[in-house]
Every structure is written in C-alpha cells, then in structure tokens.
Amino acid sequence: MLTVVWSLAAFVVTLGILVTFHEFGHFWVARRCGVKVLTFSVGFGKPLWQRQAADGTVYQIGAIPLGGYVRMLDGRVDEVPEHQRHLSFNAKSVPQRAAIIAAGPLANFILAIVVLWVMFLLGVQSVKPIIGDVREQSIASQVSIPVPSEIIAVDGRRTEDWQQVNLAFASALGQQQVTLTVQDERLRERDYVLDIADWRLSDQQTPTFVDLGLQPYQQRVSLVLSYVADESPAAQADLRVGDKIVEFDGTPVVDWSQTRQLIMSSAGQQVILSVERNGQLLALPVTIGSRELEQESIGFLGVEPTVAPYPEEYRFVQQYGFIDGLVKGTERTWELIVLSVKMLGKLVTGVVSVSNLSGPVAIAEGAGTSASYGLVYFLGFLALISVNLGVINLVPLPVLDGGHLVFLAVEGVRGKPVSERVQEVFYRIGGALIFALMAIAISNDILRLSQ
C-alpha cells in the first residue's frame, strides 16, 4: 500500500511539474505577443486554490491533476469589447499564434535540458554496459560475443551506460541489422552484426538489450551462507554462517538461483541439506518454512548467500561542469527527441505494436521507482517524460498543439482561416483517436499488472 501511495505522489508531482512548464510556455509567449490571459490553470475541475492578479488573470489549481490549460481572450468564444479586440488571440497574426501554440512543447524541451543539466552537475552513479551473459536461443547468441565484454558503441553511436545502449537499440528497431561494438578484457575491439529483421519489442516493457539476449554483468553469488536468521528453519537445523550448500535433498546445486527455487517450491517439507563445513560434508535435516504470498505457499529457509562486491572498475560517475553539463543535457535531450519521433513513426508503420503503449499507471510506477532511487534518477525520468509530452503534443491531431499548428499553416497558405465546421469535424476525429489510444494504453497497464 505504501508503494502505491508513493507512486501516486511521485506521479502527481511529475505531472504537476510538466503541466506547469508546458502551460507556462503558452502563457509567457501569449503575454509577450500582447494577448490577454484570462485563466492559468494547473489541473482540471473545481479549483482547490484560486487567486486573481491585478491584471485580471486568474491563477488556479484544479482538483483533477491530469493536465492544465491557459484560457486566452478569444473573439471566437468571448464577447470582446471593441477596445480589447487587439488583446484577443484571434486578432494576432499567424506567426504570433503559431509561436504561442508551439511554446508549450518547446517549454517541455527546455525543461528537459535544464533538469538533465542539473542531473549532470550533481553527478549520476552509473555502471558500464558490461555483458555478463548471453541468453541461449536469442538474437545475440547467433554471434560469438565474448563474456565479459563492454559495449562501447551501437551502430557507431558511443554508449557509456546501459541506458544509452537501451536507447540505441530502440532507435535501431525496424532495421535489418544492427552493429554492436564491444571491447573484451584485453581491450580489443570488435564489431558484431546482429540480424534484427524479425525482432519486435516485448510486451513486458523489458529493456531492448534484454530482449536481444544480452544480460548485464551481475555480482557473483556463491552458495556459502553469509547470514542465518535467528529462530529460522535454518537456525533450528544448525545451519551456520560459512556453510556451503552442496545438495538439496539429494539434488546437486550449482548456483543460488537454483537453490532458491528449490527452497521456495518445498514449503512445509522436510528435506536433507548437504553442506560443507570446515572441510567436512554434513547432512542436516531441515523443515522448510512456509509463508503465504498471493494465496500461494512459498517456502523459506532464513538464510542469505555470500555476494561478491561489484567490481569498482565497472562503476563510474557521469558528472560535468557548468558548461559541459549544459552541452551534455542539450545533447541528451536531442537524442530523446529524435528517438521519440522515430518511435512514433514506427508505431504508425506497425514496426512497434500498440501493445507496447504505456499509460498513466506505468508512468506512475516509473515516477515512484525513480524517485525512490534518489533525486538524480528522478530528474532523468522527468526529462524523459517531458520530452515525450512535448513530442506527442506536436503530433498533427486537431486536439493537440500540432493540430492547431497545421490549421495555422493552412491559414497562412490560403490567406484565411479553416472554417469552424471543418475544424469541428477534425476535432472530433482527433479526439476519438486520442481516446482510443489512451484506452489501449490503460488496458495495457492493467494487463501488465495482472500478469
């Protein structure tokens, strides 16, 4: 329950920041163009807080934190006195109106640059993209990639961490092949060409490199016990720190993952654990404990294995100075914009399935998880969502900023506005499409939660 509350709180904060900056973009440029702003609202519905400024603009926070709006004086919907007609939105030139509309998405891109700049100033704890294993029967297993080795480039694009590897593979989706450049332990570089002609993204929201079969390096976990809980089934069977599990009820065990699975599937059963202690082999009878998890009995022993420390040479901090951080933040924002546009195109062409769409539940989970990791990780998530919001708003659907820009472009060419009747038809079509996509995204969220 606490996790749900935390995720909801992080979601509200994330959406509040994004909407505030988006609407402030419209607001700021509208004021610069001499348009009278009637209302600046973060959220919809009944106002929880409201204040009217000296210039007549009403600032408010709505009860439903799922968006916002800037209401400007407009002769098409308001009774505008003659002396205020020059302050109405529709009285402004096409370039001015286009600037006001485009300012919202632009503000989201600027926000992404700023938060990534701050993130790089603070420093991001990262790990190098070291391949720890290659899954059998995967696309990556078709070539002999050495393990361990570091991914230093994808299609010639340098990669410093796993996030960049993930984005690079996502960008390559739909291609016939992708070139992976790796560096082995002897610092020798080699290119490997992966055949991705038939590759499609998984519906489980797994990273692209995992889909392809590349497993990040993980700390080695041995079968030597590093902890035995007091009064646990293990303690009652006289298991001790330093014991090495060799067999589980006659079944030889080779790693902790196998051992853990055997323990979990033996709830309430009495088994014989063969352990190595001080050079001697002991056979200890153990009654596996039982816990209820999601209406299923799960076995537990009350021990922890010995985990080797993560190699320090695989860790690094992405931290830059004032100017370099700004440059890096701008570069990363541009990369995200390009990738978002490409992914939208692949969605339209069918390369990416609609089953990969994520809705508000997935965003809330991402917000909660990134916030729990710390400020710098939350800033990275905020930048990603801000870029996505900016790009999506530029899609040429009438209910979005991009649709309004299309109507203004037509008006600029024709010399007169598109008729209200035509606009109304397109608004309804656009609204239906947006509603359908949102319904699919929310359905995908629900299906993922139920799995």
Explain this structure.
- The chain is of the alpha+beta class.
- Helix content is 43%, strand content 25%.
- The protein is built from eleven helices and 18 strands.
- The chain has helices spanning 2-32, 94-122, 162-172, 208-211, 233-236, 256-264, 322-349, 360-373, 375-393, 401-414, 420-450; strands spanning 37-52, 58-72, 124-127, 130-134, 149-154, 157-158, 177-183, 189-195, 214-216, 221-228, 244-248, 251-252, 270-277, 280-287, 289-292, 297-300, 303-307, 315-318.
- The longest helix is centred in the N-terminal third of the chain and has 31 residues, at 2-32.
- The model has no long low-confidence stretch (mean pLDDT 86).
Summarize the structure.
The chain is of the alpha+beta class. The protein contains eleven helices and 18 strands.
Record field, number of beta strands: 18
Q: Give the termini distance in whole angstroms.
A: 19 Å
> What best-fitting shape do the alpha-carbon axes yield?
elongated
Q: What percent of residues are in strands? A: 25-35%
What is the structural class? alpha+beta
Low-confidence stretches: none
Figure out the total of helices: 11
Helix content: 40-55%
How much is the average pLDDT? 86
Q: How would a crystallographer describe the biggest sheet?
A: 6 strands, antiparallel
User: What radius of gyration results from the CA coordinates?
Assistant: 28 Å
**SSE pattern, N- to C-terminal:** HEEHEEEEHEEHEEHEEHEEEEEEHHHHH
Main location: membrane
Cofactor: Zn(2+)
Family: Belongs to the peptidase M50B family.
Domain PDZ: 212-290
